[in-house]
Structures are given as C-alpha cells and as structure tokens.
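Mods, move this if it's the wrong board.
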Amino acid sequence: MSQGNEVTGELDPGRFAMHSERAGADERVHLLGELDLSVIGSVDREMRRAEAGDAARIVLDLGELEFLDAAGIRLLLQINSRSQSNGSRLRITRARAPQVQRVIELTGAAEALPFLD
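Not the wrong board. Structure tokens:
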C-alpha cells in the first residue's frame, strides 16, 4: 500500500512540483519541472522528512526534472552527504532531460551521486 504527499514549490508552483510516496520499504520523492534556488528549501525539507522516517531506501526521482542549476547540484550533494553519514539509503534516478544530465556530468556530481542504473 502506498501513501503520498503532494508538495509544490513555494514561489512558483507552475514551474516546480514534488510528490512523495511510500511503497513498501521505499520512500520515493519525485521532482518535476525546475529545481533551482527558489525551491531548494522545499526539497530539502521534504528530504529531511524522508530521512527521519524508517524507509530502508530513499529514492529521489529526477526523471521529470527539466532544469537544474548550481543551487540544485549543491543540494543533491548535501543530501548525499547526509545519506552517507546515515546508512547510505539514498538512491537517485536519472533525469530524462539531456540538459539536466549534462549539468550533473559537467559539475562532476555524476561520480559522487548514487544513481540507480
């Protein structure tokens, strides 16, 4: 059985949306649209909520992400750092948008983040 929380970005919900769901032992956080400085606070709060739970694995789904800036990269690296000191439960699904994957690769974050392949 899964349950979900719909959370939207604080400043412009038309550009960003976030949805969380629990499925078995996994907590999934789906990001849609644009992950930039205006919404990283919301994403960080939702990830901290997931980290505080008892999920065996926390999956951050970037599949529907269309834009990612430096603030978003920094947040992904911070979330990963917290995960490494707390059981390494984080897994990340890759974005389908080539421009998002390109930013991740150009910044060197691709080697540091725990992507599901």
